[in-house]
Specification:
six-stranded antiparallel β-sheet, alpha+beta, single chain, 30% helix
Amino acid sequence: MKKILFGLFIFGLTYQVNSQTIELPNTVISLNYKYLDAVGSDNTSERVKRLEDEILNYKHKELSKLYDNGYEVYEVSFYVPQGKIVAAYNKHGKIIRTNEKYNNVRLPLVVMQAISKRFPNWGIVEDAYLIKYHCDKDFLKQEYRVKIKNDDKYIMVSTDEKGIFL
């Protein structure tokens, strides 16, 4: 009888141990990890992220059927009312380079602070966010072109993503 009770006790303990589950985070494996690392930022506008997700999830196999072996890359344009991306893919679907332009996006805090510090009493009228990326050169250039106004005067200023004037 002692053996049966001891066996049930051990079985009860092992039953609870096996009931634990561990949930692992989602892992993304992408051919375009360099682009994802280069442009991925926490303070990027939601509109920009959505359009960048489109080029990352682009089904290149549909276009690769039309791919001409005479060319090494093919360009695909993505448009939304607030911006556009022209992305160059190779025949395997890897992003080679991009030219991106977004109009009237939310400026990062460091850019707004730099503009207000250098140009007090000026207001932001409109802006454009430009990105140029190239995979082979590990090249990423981000630029904000901002039109500001004071009374009846308008000027254009350009900064990088850190608020340094160009």
